[in-house]
Amino acid sequence: MDRQAIIERLLEHYDHPRHHGPLAEADITLSGGIPDCGDMITIYLKVEASGEHVTALSFEGQGCTISQAAASLLSEQFQDAPLAAIENMEDNAVLDLLGREVVRARPRCATLALNTMKAAVQAYRRRH
Prior knowledge:
- This protein starts with a helix and ends with a helix.
- Helix 1 (3-15) packs across helix 2 (65-77) and helix 4 (91-98) crosses helix 6.
- The protein has six helices and three strands.
- By secondary structure, it is of the alpha+beta class.
């Protein structure tokens, strides 16, 4: 994907986020942010009865295009996924998913959603 296509995809997810909004029956609701730049993400996670798979995942947030587009892309990717998929995803994989050449100057923004999702999974596992 060329640079312009990557930017257009990020803008599309920023303008029309997928899985955006509160999840009424979430098992875990967890917020994360980067205070010095104003990016905030709240993750809503619903897990199946066996405790190993996502049944629903959504987010709310505010901040830059990169942080919000990342939340949209990841929430789309992790619908019905094993919790281990969230836990095992590395920051470099998010940078590649978003378009490393476009987001390389803002890695904290790019990885905020993933790190918040990982923290939500950890919180879920601690409670159950």
